[in-house]
Amino acid sequence: MAFLELHDIHKSYFLGKEEFPVLNGIDLDFELGEFVSILGESGGGKSTLMNIIGGLDRNFDGEVDVNGQPLDHKKEKQLDDYRRGTIGYIYQSYNLITHLNIVDNVLVSLNMTDLSKSARKQRAIELLQKVGLGDQLKKHPNQLSGGQKQRVAIARALASDPEIVIADEPTGALDSKNTAEVLELLEGIAADGKLVITVTHSQNVANHGTRIVQLTDGKIGEDTRLKEAYPTNDHQPEFKPKILSAGASYRNAFQHLSYNFWRNSLIMLGTAIGLFAVLLFSGVGNGVNAFIQDQINSMINPNSITVLKNPTGKNLSTTELQQSLSQYSSNPSKLLLSDHQINTLKKVKNVDKVEAGYQFSAFTVSYNGKNNSGQSLQTWTKAYASDTIKTGHAPKNNEIVIDKSQAIALSSQKKYKSLLGKTVKLSFAWVDKNNNPVQVTGNLKIVGFANGGQAGAITATNYSTMRNLLNNANGATQANFASVNVKNADKVKSVSKDIRNTKENNKYVFGAITVGDILDTVNQYVSIASIVLASIAGISLIVSALMIIVSMYMSVSERTKEIGILRALGERKKDIRRLFTAESILIGLFSAVLALVLAYAGSLALNHVLYGIVKFNMVQITWGNVVFTFVMAIVISFLAALLPARRASRLNPIDALSAD
Ligand SMILES: Nc1ncnc2c1ncn2[C@@H]1O[C@H](COP(=O)(O)OP(=O)(O)OP(=O)(O)O)[C@@H](O)[C@H]1O
C-alpha cells in the first residue's frame, strides 16, 4: 500500500453540453520520500491532476487514497481538513498575499495549527531563515525578486508540516540560478521524507527528481524511476492542524484594512457621517426635551393644577379644552368660575389650597410716555415656581411684577432695574356682568421683574389688587381660573382627573391643566421634530450601509486570488465568509468611533455657541445613545457584509486562484 494512490481518475470539462475529457483513467502510486516530476504537453491535464491530488477539485470520477484511507472528495469538510493538514502548495506565480508581509504570509498557514502564538511566529521566522530570507522578514511580496517570492511560497508550503508538497511549475518564472536554488530546496523537502510532486515542462528540472511520470492523452505514459526514494523517518509532528480561529480572521481583516488605509478611511468617514447624524440628532432631542422641562419646571410649580371653566359641558382632553377655550375667547363671560365652583374645588380629595385668579390675554403697561403691550397678565399664585422672579418679590396690594423684557422695552437694557419702585399704568379690556366691554386701568408699583424667557413673558398682580381694579371699572369680578395646589406631586394626576370629572347639573364644569399636560403637548411637537430628524438620520444610515456593501463587493473582487490561496491552504467557506464580515464589522466599529469623536466635538461646539444664547446645554448625548449607535453600526455592517461575504465564500477555489 502506497502513501498516495490514484485509482482510475477520470475528469472532463463541459462547455455547455459538450464534454472535453482531460483525464482518461489515471492510476498512480506515490510514496513518501519521492520527488516525482510530471511531464506532459501543454494542455495535457497536469494542473488538473494536481488540483485533484491537492484536494481543490471535487468534480471527478475515481478514487484517491491517502495513507490507506479513501479521501471522500464529495465531502467538503474532509477536503478542507486534507488541504490544511496534509498538503502544501507551491505555484508558478507564487500566489502570495500582497497586503501581508512575508512572515504574515507564512503565518496564514501556521494560524491553522495548535501552536501557541509565539511558537507560530518563531516557526515562520525559522522557515524563512531556512529558505534564505532571514534578513527580509519585514518585506511585502512586491518588494522581493521572483526567486525570493518562490522561497516564501516554499516556506509557507512547509509551514503546516504537510506530508505532500505539490509544486505546479515552481521554476517556470525563474532564471537558472534561482531555479537551481529552488530545486535544491525541493530536493531537501523530499530528503526530509515528504512526498514532492512537481509539474514541469523542463527535462532539467525533472532530472533532479527521483521519478518522472509522463502524462499523454490523459493517461499515464512512461513512468521512470531515476533513483531510490529518500528514506522516510519516524518524524512525529510537533503540532496538529486546527481550524482557523475567529481572532485570526479579524486580524487578517484588520491587516487588509490598514493596507488600504486611505481608501478605507474615506469609506469609514462616509459611514461615520450617517452614525454621526444619529448621535447628534439624539443629543439635540435630549437637549431640547431637557430644556423644555427645565423651563416649565422653573416657572410653574409642578404640584399645582390650573383649573379653567369647561364651556362645553362635555368631558374634554387637555387639547380639546384648549381648542374650545380659544373658540370662546371673544365671549369671556362664559369662562368665569362662580364662588360656589371655587368652593367645590376645595373639597376635592388631596387638594391643599385653591387660589382664585384672573388671566387676561392682552394688556398694556405705560411708563413715562412709553407703552408696551403684553400677551399674558395674571394674578400671582402658587402655580409660579418660587424662582420665577429674578429681581424683587411677589406682588402685594397695588403692586405689580413685570417681565424683564417689558422693563427693558419701557427703559433700556442697562437701566431697566431703575424701574423698581416706579409706578406704571396698567390697562386692558374686559367685560361687565352683561358681557358689555369695559376698560380697566390702574396705577401700580413695580416690585419685581420676572424672567419668562423662552416659555413666555409674565406680568402679574395679586388677586385682591386685580379684583379692585375690575370693581372700579364695573367689570365682572368672578375669577376666570383657579390654581389648585396638591399635597403630593404623585397625586397631581389623580386630582386633575377628579376635577375634570366633577359635574354640576350633569355637565362637566372644569378643565384642568397640569405641568405634565403642558409637557405632553410640547413633547408631541418635539416628537414630530424628532421623527423628522430620525428619518434624515435613517436615510444617511442607509447610505452608510450601501457604502459598506459597495466597498465589500470591491474588496471581494480585489481579493479573489487571495480567497483561492486561503482555500488552498485549508480555510473553510465559513472562514472566508467570516473574513469579509469581520472586515465590514471593523469598518462599522471604526466608523462608530469616528462618529462619536465628531459628535462629541460637534456637541461641544454647538453647546458653546448655544449656551451663550439660551444658557443651557442643548446637545446632550447620553451613554444610551452611544451604545445604540455602536450596536447600530455593528448590525448595519454585519447585514451589509452578508451578500458580498456569501459570494466570496462560494467562489470555486480553482477559479479564484486563476483570477488575475
Ligand atoms: N475551468 C476549465 N474549463 C474548461 N476547460 C478547462 C478548464 N480548466 C482547464 N481546462 C482545459 O483542460 C485542459 C487541461 O488543462 P490543464 O491546465 O490541466 O493543462 P496543463 O497540462 O496543466 O497545461 P499547461 O502545461 O499549459 O499548464 C486544457 O485543454 C484546458 O483548456
TrEMBL record:
<dbReference type="GO" id="GO:0006865">
    <property type="term" value="P:amino acid transport"/>
</dbReference>
<feature type="transmembrane region" description="Helical">
    <location>
        <begin position="528"/>
        <end position="553"/>
    </location>
</feature>
<protein>
    <submittedName>
        <fullName>ABC transporter, ATP-binding and permease protein</fullName>
    </submittedName>
</protein>
<keyword id="KW-1133">Transmembrane helix</keyword>
<dbReference type="GO" id="GO:0022857">
    <property type="term" value="F:transmembrane transporter activity"/>
</dbReference>
<dbReference type="Pfam" id="PF12704">
    <property type="entry name" value="MacB_PCD"/>
</dbReference>
<dbReference type="InterPro" id="IPR003593">
    <property type="entry name" value="AAA+_ATPase"/>
</dbReference>
<dbReference type="InterPro" id="IPR003838">
    <property type="entry name" value="ABC3_permease_C"/>
</dbReference>
<keyword id="KW-0547">Nucleotide-binding</keyword>
<keyword id="KW-0812">Transmembrane</keyword>
<dbReference type="Pfam" id="PF02687">
    <property type="entry name" value="FtsX"/>
</dbReference>
<keyword id="KW-0472">Membrane</keyword>
<keyword id="KW-1003">Cell membrane</keyword>
<dbReference type="InterPro" id="IPR025857">
    <property type="entry name" value="MacB_PCD"/>
</dbReference>
<dbReference type="Pfam" id="PF00005">
    <property type="entry name" value="ABC_tran"/>
</dbReference>
<dbReference type="GO" id="GO:0098796">
    <property type="term" value="C:membrane protein complex"/>
</dbReference>
<feature type="transmembrane region" description="Helical">
    <location>
        <begin position="579"/>
        <end position="601"/>
    </location>
</feature>
<dbReference type="InterPro" id="IPR027417">
    <property type="entry name" value="P-loop_NTPase"/>
</dbReference>
<feature type="domain" description="ABC transporter">
    <location>
        <begin position="4"/>
        <end position="242"/>
    </location>
</feature>
<dbReference type="InterPro" id="IPR017871">
    <property type="entry name" value="ABC_transporter-like_CS"/>
</dbReference>
<keyword id="KW-0067">ATP-binding</keyword>
<keyword id="KW-0997">Cell inner membrane</keyword>
<feature type="transmembrane region" description="Helical">
    <location>
        <begin position="621"/>
        <end position="643"/>
    </location>
</feature>
<dbReference type="GO" id="GO:0005886">
    <property type="term" value="C:plasma membrane"/>
</dbReference>
<dbReference type="InterPro" id="IPR017911">
    <property type="entry name" value="MacB-like_ATP-bd"/>
</dbReference>
<comment type="similarity">
    <text>Belongs to the ABC transporter superfamily. Macrolide exporter (TC 3.A.1.122) family.</text>
</comment>
<keyword id="KW-0029">Amino-acid transport</keyword>
<keyword id="KW-0813">Transport</keyword>
<dbReference type="InterPro" id="IPR003439">
    <property type="entry name" value="ABC_transporter-like_ATP-bd"/>
</dbReference>
<dbReference type="GO" id="GO:0005524">
    <property type="term" value="F:ATP binding"/>
</dbReference>
<dbReference type="GO" id="GO:0016887">
    <property type="term" value="F:ATP hydrolysis activity"/>
</dbReference>
